[in-house]
Fold each of these.
Amino acid sequence: MEARKLFASFSLVVVALCTASGTTMKYYIDEEAPLGTFIGNLSLDLKINASEQQNTVFRFMHEEKSSLILMGEGDGCLTVGARMDRESLCHRSPLCLINFDVVVVSKEKFHLIHVEVQVRDTNDHAPRFPRNEIRLDIAEDVAVGTKFPLEAANDLDVGNNYVQEYHLHQNRHFSIETKRGEDGIAYPELVLVKDLDSDVEDTLKMTASDGGSPPKLGSVTVRVNVLDSNDNSPRFELTPPKVELHEDAPVGYLLLKLYASDPDHGANGEVRYGFMDGVADEIKDTFAIDFFTGAVTLKSPVDYETRKSYELSVQAYDLGVNSVPSTSKVTVEVVDVNDNAPEIHIKPMASASEGVAHITEAAAVESFVALISTTDRDSGTNGDMRVSLSGHEHFKLKQAYGDTFMIVTTAPLDREKIPEYNMTVVAEDLGSPPFITSRRYTIRVSDENDNAPLFSKPVYDISFMESKEPGSYIATLVARDLDDGANGQVTYKLIDNDIDGAPLSSYVAVHPISGSLYTVQSLDYEYLKQIEVGIEASDGGSTPRSSTAIVKVKVVDENDNAPFITHPVLINGSADVPLSHNAPAGYVAVTVSAHDLDDGVNGKLSFSLLEDNERTFFINKTTGVIALKHSLSHKQGDSLEIKVMVTDGGRTPFSCTATLRFVVTDEELFDEHLVVSFEMTDVDKSEEQKTNLEASFIIIILLGAGCAFLLVAIIAVAFSSRPGQRETYFRKNNGLESAFVRSPVSANSTDSSDSGSCHESGATVSEQLTSTRDDSSYEEQSQDSDSKLFRPLLKRTNLDSVAMWHDDRQSHHIRIPPIDQTSMKDSGKGDSDIPDSDSNISSDADQRISISGHRRAMNSVYSAPMVGMCQATKEISTTRSSNVASSGYKIAYRSSMCNYHSVNQRVSTWRNYDYIPSALPRAPEQFQDPACHRIGTLYHHNPYSYMGRAPQVTSEVTPSATAF
């Protein structure tokens, strides 16, 4: 624990060099510090509040130093992670540094920190001599003060912990001096301080000590052998203490030539050269000395960047007996030349492959991408460099420290536009000639989830045929996401919704990956004509983005429903229909109504007779009206049976059939009370209530004036033989002149509205009932007016008009005498067997048929019985003839005959009959009754206009039947 505190105290010395381009943090740690020893805290030293910036992360640029030094990712706390032996890390280097780079990631920004941890040496090694014993031969006549170099001790420690001094135990002949070479290393020299005796051997003990506290020691034994005198020893002359050697010098290059002279003759004067004993092997491997000439040559290449100087210990000796060598030291300084090209090292922030850096597209401007270190082993100008970056303006170089640069962004990045950049880093030194090094580098922009999936349009309209089986394919929706990887993987789902209380998922489903839409159940057009399906597309980002689209699935109708008959009401597929025995040709026996749940063409119905053995009937294929081809014969019996088929218009048509049995009755057909049906437009409830009150008030007044009305009726009957006078009298005496203006129908007009009387009267019955126009001159299916007139019905028939008003209804009655089927008179033109109007102007009033205009109830085909309605209070006997060939009208009439539509067969009810002449056979010898096959129009009169009130707006006439 004490040791940990001691080491920690050493490491708190921090130097921060903050520049515009980066930050360098320096820390110190002693070698052999225990594991976990605190080195420094980057967040504290950089004043980064990690608690406030929770997303701050500290990361090593490279992991090679992470085993020696550990760093906290959240706060940048540095601790010792492994044993640190300075000698193994840095050898004899005087400065031992552990350099690494840290990137601080905070709020989409990158901050580069260069960290230098200096491992300080501890005196953990003692000096050691190469050998345990040194032998030295000295002539007995050597002069006092002569110095003899000895081998130096080695120490693995550096600095003050290296060998500092040498000591010699007490000796009367010798002493030790400590010398320092050019490299600062101390070496010993043995100095003769007293004359030697011949044939004497002296043993010395030399000790080396380092500068540690306490110092460590190393010793060696030196044996001195005193020899007989050899008169003279060789002496070096003109030997330079220092020579220069260019690092590019070739092997064999001559550095210098040693020269020593010896005045003796013979063997005692022959001089030889060589290295002193104990010279390091590195020196002997690099240089060579010629044994005879003393030439010093280069044995192997030298490198300035590896070693800048060498110290050579040389000697010269003669060949005489007891020769004493002379020694000298020569320093070789290596001269740098521009022989090295710049080196480029790129360290990306994160990369899975060499030469590739990654950066997120969300990075801010000036964000760090990669670290570029440039080195040149040359020195001086040869080692100075210029570094540049080319490839794209979105990036630039920014100096971090020394020859280290950062690649940073200059603009926002967008991976969807440029996913990858190819950059080139160029380093050029300033030597002559210069060396240039270039390196290509790729920067890949990593994706951020900055794009939502997008559909091609917000709303899709899709048609889908109904009745397809569940699981049928509808369509595929594709949403495209420009992002990459998981950020661009789109999944689909339905947006929750209900359709008539049922979840949308019970109708359709969407495949989550493909976006294909399928049905869950069969879709029925008759139940559901359109489904709006909401689809949501989401990407796979950590914070997903989404978008929606609406698919309007329009269910297309398929002919999957057969028509069914609604009228007449069928029981077990058949119905009984009463038919009068004297029904003429063209008489509408019944109208078949049917319905089909399908739509459009699939629901358009056509009617046909499947079986008609008697060939008595024909059917309108569009309306379903069944009419007689000819009058009935007693041979046909009491009942006629036909089979009707109703077919829809589908491509594969469906049909239904019904059997109709016509029961022939004794009911007379012509003594019937016809009532023309009108329908009024709904008005505001408050106004209608007010109108009803006024109508009630009018009824009370009119009932009180009943006697007056009876008198007027008598007068009208009296003047019936004078048509012009009857009409004038009616209009003058009843104040209804504007309501019953009779206007002749022009031969050039198909509508009584052309007469201009529609704006003056509420209901108008045409005075002129004779027309010479053919069928085509009349307006067909005219229902576009709120006040139109049904033209008179019968051809060349005496009509007596009776006007009556009862309760809240106004009626106009026309009576017609029965047609004498046995009396057929020619008109003179051969086209009719019916007596013309001139011969039948005078008719019995009791033989008249009444046509009434009234206000219908409930807008239904069959109105409720209107008992007592036809009691005339005023009557005008006006007779006009109708000469409209083959013209027809659609009306409803009230009949007292036995009616199968009525619950009570004795009560008069509204009946539906059509008279269509187009199907009538025309035998030249037989007169055909006039038939009605077109819809006419009739001006409708508001009954309240009798009291001088303005007419109310009325709707189109809604024909409920056709009568002859």
Amino acid sequence: MKRISLFLLVLGLGFTFAENKEWCGTQEAVRLFKSGIKLARPILSGPVSYVERTNFRVHYTTSGSDATTPAYAESTANYIEYSWRKQVDTLGWIAPPPDGGEGGDDRYDIYIQGLQEGIMGYCAPEFYYSNPYPDGATSYIGIDNNLSFRDLRIVCAHEFNHASQNRYSYLEGNWWQENCATWMEDVCYDGINQYLDYFNWSIDPLDSPHKPITCDEDLYEYAGCLWPMFLAERYGINCPRIAWVKMGEISGENTLSGINSALANFSANLTNALKEYGVWRYFTGSRADPTYHFSESNLMPTSRILRSHSSYPAFGDQGSYAPSGPGGTNYIQFSSGGTNYLRTIFDGQDSYLWSASAIGYKAPPSDTYEFILNYPQARGFRTVPFSTHSHIALVTTVSQWESPANNLNFAYNCSLKTMVYNRDVGIAAILSPPERVKRDSQFSPRVLVENYGQTSASFLVKFAIFHPSAETIYQDSASVNNLPRDGWQEVQFRPTNISQIGSYSVIAQTKFNDDEYPNNDQLTKSLNIYSPITGWERIAEVPLSPDGKRVKSGGGMAIIDDTTIFILKGNNQPSLYRFNPRNNSITFIGTLRYGGEDLKVKRGGFLLAGGDYLFFVPGGNKNFFYRSLKTAPLSLTALNQIPGVGLKGGTGMVYCEKGGDGYIYLLKGSKSRDFYLYDVKNGNWQVKQPAPVYASPDKGYPIGSGITFDGNRTIYCLRAKYNELYKYDIVGDTWYSRFIQILPFIHPAVGRKKYVKEGGAIAYGSDKVYFFKGGNSNEFWAFDIVNNSWLPLQFLPSGSENKGVKGGGFLIYHKGYLFALKGNNTSGIWCYTGEELLARGSIFLDELPIKRKEEKGRFNLFSGEIKIYDSSGRLINLSNKLAPGIYIIERSQGGKERKKVVVVR
């Protein structure tokens, strides 16, 4: 009977390599070693023979399920010997360490055995070995007993590189480990080119250039060998090895910082290398340039173009291929420009590091024009001639690597110019003030100036604001010195404010001696000074068509971007709508269907946007879970069902990213405390620590409960009926044990207790958590996270239906706006644009009301009984000043009672 090691059992249970072509089992061995599990060495199925070499031993048998031939074992030894000489003796990689006598002596051990179908080899770390690197490890290699000699060469080179990697540091990113080992196959056996197969089997850096270099999904990490291949060809073949040395020198995982440190040896850094890597990947396949870029680029597929333009002006954005850092890249191609110049403006998502280049493509070598981008706006432009190039390509790359930069947005705008002048500067944009400014609000005027000419320029910039009467109410100027060609600069002027409501004219102007093209020297815009009006506004209606129903239980929203909010009507309907908050238009886009059946949304239904996808649960006591692309919301795919009982209400879902991967946290509600994590990449559910409870711990989370995410690391969780608010840390995957807040039961405008019920809603935005209480009330609250206080806000209006928030109530936040559904069989879409407290001021016990008797010319203290209650109805001790909060003051005298609600801040 075949004997199988623990390692192979783990592989057999955890992966299906035969389907996805992942033939190397090293990463599972490394993962277990990191978790403290040392895998047992193979026990071969028959008497063991050896091929002995100076540095290693090959263990094999000629009988049983592990059987092979002496010739196969001898070939294995020859290929390991060659890999050792090439990698260690020639290229200077460190040799695997001695293993303390395991396998018979201190030499390195290779086992030939019958591996699971689809697995060709693995390298398993075994013992910690800190000489000379603190996180080094010993290891051994396992190789399948039935490989072609072509595959045997590849496996020996690949797994031996893993053995060397382990001595530097077993803690580095698995993507980098496989990048390097796959690249080393080609270094050792350049004529085989097995790495090219991964461009057919998996997503890769050419068909998915927007993915980061750290990507390890769908075998990307093997095709990702292009990254160390680039480092070796661009900076020298020693660059990847030096990176491993730098990683090993410092304890812990240092993959990206180690690469950056290695590049310093070549007068470079990781930010610039990522930019160049983006450019190099353009020159593959039909655009190959083996002389100046990848030496085997003619063998590679052609990298994917995001979009092509042949008419102008042209503009666009990232579309469905939002790039992530480090290294995510997009290519946009431009043609048919005649003898004109292409002027391209690039604008990346603010506060992230970007790189942008324009490739003027022609017979090698092509021309590359680098954009000068500012920070934090990530904006710049470049002008490139069409006449000397067959086409022009815009290359945009996320160069940020020291902090997360996932699924970023960018925009570009291109136009044709018939001429480029030697001396030409101008105003590109008036950045501040915006078109509308609140009366008496201070602002600092800012403009963007650009040098369109061919030489550096120094000039003056003037800024003025005029009243309609032509009166100048503001003017200032600033100097710009030595602005380079194709350069731009943001110029700021002294701050000001305007008190008078009305319309004004803003003018920005450059003054440059001998400017050859004055038409772009001046820019004007309108400025409206207004008196702020904040609060709720009903901005649109969810159509009755096609089903004749309004929003009710199961209603919800998912925001995609500035122009798209998907809306579920709920109410036992499968209808899905697209709402554009830019123009308040809404359209019915279809019914949610799967397997030929309508997915009717009921209580517990939920719609969530995350990454490239929409996620959807129909509720109605079911556990079904679906996904669609944001760009094709009706094309649903069924995912693994949610564990446990069905969803009946109190459901909440949030999307977040950890380590570049997407996850969904789900609060089941339905009177349970169940809390789950869904791994978007691997498609599995994990049971997490149950949501906490304080009052009535056996009651769980009733209808009206929900969760919201702050976009960083904290989930806020609202427990309906008990008004309890909790926090969850997604980094530590644990509930904050000492945090609990109580959403006040009493609103100052109501004066009586109100619990969170059906229709309760929660949404995070700008350091506040917003709430509806539901239960047919219109109460609207915010929890101020910074000041740790509760704010009673303006009620959601009753509207023409004269209804409060109930089943289908929903809140969602986007860029300073709250969008809401009232549910309760209504159709309105509401928007909130400010915070107006219904009650303000502070009150202390020594300032309580007195009764004035004017006819007698004196003041008497109030002589009746005074009681003060907090928002939960609890009687407060009168001996101290009140803490911030909401209180009811009850005064009784002569059998009569009067109540007053106050807010103490």
Amino acid sequence: MTNDLDKLPLLSRKISQNLIDLLTNSRDASFYSYIPEAVIKPETEQDIINLFLWCKRFKKPITFRAAGTSLSGQALTDGVLIDLLNGWISFDISKDFTSVTSDCGVIAGKINDKLKKYGKKIGPDPASINSCTIGGIIANNSSGMSSGVARNPYHTIQSLRIILPSGLVFDTSKHDSLYLKKFEPALFDGLLEIKKNILSENTLINKIAHKYQIKNTIGYSLNAFLDFDDPCEILEHLMIGSEGTLGFISRATMGLFDDFPIKLTGLLVFPSSIEALNHVEMIKDTGVEALEFLDYFSLLSVESKLKEVYPNLILSDDNAALLFEYASPNTEESETKFELINSILKDFSLVCQPLITRDYLLQSKLWTIRKGLLASLGKTKESETTFILEDICFPLKSLPNAVPDLHNLFTRFNYNKTGVYGHGLDGNMHFMLTENFNNPESVRRLSAFMDALFELVVVKYDGSLKAEHGTGRNMAPFVKKEWGEDAYNIMLQIKNLFDPHNFLNPGVIINEDEKIHLKNLKDYPKIETDADACIECGFCESHCPSKNLTLTPRKRIVLQRLISKNYKDIIPDEIKYFYDYYEKDTCAVDGICSVNCPIDINTGDLVKKLRRNDKKNYELKAANFFSNHFSYLEFFLRTGIKSLNFLSKLFGFENLNKIIKLIKKKIPAFPLQQWRNNLNAPSTRISSKPDNPDFVYFPSCVSRLMGKYKSENLSLSEAMILLAEKSNLKLFLPNSVSDYCCGTIFESKGFSEAANNTLNKLIKQLYLWSDSGRLPIIIDSSSCSQNLKFCENHLDHGLIDQYKKLKIIDTIEFIYEYIIDKIPINKVNYAVAHHTCSSARMGLNHKFESILQKCAFNVYVPDNTNCCGFAGDRGFLFPELTASATKDEAREVIEFASGKKDSGFYSSNTTCEIGMTNSTGLFYESLVFLLLKVIK
């Protein structure tokens, strides 16, 4: 394989045969596992063309993978895996807001985020929308909760830019049938021949038309031959749902739909599933936008989360719920819908008071719970068992009978406590089975169950075995069974027409092995409790700062599982060599992964434990010493920063870094790789003890060490005091703050004992400084605010009562709640925001943006704003992490700021500001300085 790859005309950095890369790309959100021979990261269409030519020459199969959220095994291979998350991220919204043109690697949710202010959205809305990509959505013909059939990719695509297996780039927005006939005559003629043969068979016409009256992603989109006459349009629509087996979708233009601003959301709990399903059609007829069904076991898996937003929830055996939403352009129409739903509710038998709300936060929480239901159900499975998610569709009228039959099927095969949930508007139900595949009997049971499921869904109820998750390997053995011999033979012709060399994702959709769905099944070896419940859905990956450098949270967990399974005694040298760097060193441990994880797994906690296990005795002793004498550590760090800043001026920044590189070469354990040219100086030591203070102000150790910005005359501490004074507020800044720290500096490195000791000392002192919790406490770095807000589990038992009396507020909250609406403001022209991972975890980003809107005429939040990866000291030790994490955001910001000399750049964490300054060459500073600029 290595010799063949040497002949592939791609840069070597785009090709990896690193064993860690191969192992961590062997799994995705499905229940299969295939270890690829190589992982390749193409960045241009020419790269794809070169790949296709190479595949044909060397007879190598390739498979495309984007977000890895697909569920049927279509994005895995034991050949060459093509990773599409490096680049492919541009998209443009049409001037009339009727369409969006997007590269294949754009995360779909980012497009909707951008469209929201224009009242628009794309059609498909899968639960994974904040993780999956446009290319994946189109390749799988994904739909979702409100899209149904009418708004799926097949019906909303306006054009595709495709690279065919021959290497031809075919753009349906520019090229016509003559172009196709000229450069792909066999494909052109073959498509017309298939259409002619289909139209000559009435039975086949009726079969195809009938199959697409409900959701169906089994096999190729044969409806293209009935819906279109032009071979270009047939080709375009065959690509949709083809799962990477017919060509590469580089770019797509999709139609847009109204996203009305006023939502009315409700949750209705019924005595039984049958009772709930009997009311689906009645509610659908009221014009509801979305209608989700959750059976008893589904509700049980999210009961605690639901009770946070719906305290009246009462659950007992066999209860089921319907979650619905209406969308209206104005209050009057919303009120009409409210009256309409209330008028029919009086005839419903409900087990508790219905929840109906227009509150955005409540609505957001309800839909977040629903979108995370897969992972929540996964969390309930026993350790070391594999989950199998199925996705079926029944004709809507059959639901009240079909779902109970499905429950009976679970009972028959002893799949107890299996939750059923799904899209009530479409009759599209999901359910999750669990098996321990270490037991051969489990495979036999699953095989028999799948055969019985086919009989129930397809034979008895004339439904489809896959509604929206694609055929993949999971349903490949059932394509012929569901469609029949004639239709299946047409699919064989389609595959052969497009890909006669069979190098594009072989074995997916078309597979003659009737047991392929039972092979290469995933197992889940037990690992650390922090991450053992992970089902590898991939929702965590999109915001991970190291995703384009080394590993993502999911991949770090996968690596732990595979090491646990395969290398318990001896870890191969190839893994050992890269392990620390990939698994531990380049993880920012910032916990941003937990924001998108439906079951709140913080992979950073796992990595901290791994780092702690590496610590030597003398390191632990040193950390514990400094946790008890923090002012010593602060003194050494202040001295070091001052010295290196001085040497940078003396020798020049580049020469200093040459010296550092030489030292690093001679002494590998030397902690620095490079020094930062724009590093802030230590803050001036100040204190403030006014009479009758309004707040306690605790400057974080980071702002004390690096709070003197080169772009400002004041340090951050001085700026905070001045801002308070100008707002007629008094801050108490104790003179002994250098003795204290929140512990993050120790915790992130794995020194948990030192971290807890430091934290407990600070909490005791904050209680005293705040007059037993009477005064709110301002923290000026979001990472420290976040740590202090959620540290209860790390406190000594005797301190918890004191801690609960403290009111910890971040700088963003201080300005938003106590200053911004109480001062006269002269707006600046431009303000650019960088959201930190900590502010995201605390839910403060909207407050941050609101402050900027009140301080600037033009506020810019980059589409790719994300964790900067500086992570305390990672930016010093592994600067490539910050460079990778900020690459796309920095490009956006530089482009926006070009020619706008009066732009300001703001964040809420000192090290993040340093990281963004270094990545963009533009000075980022605390939000506090913006307020000082705009106060009249």
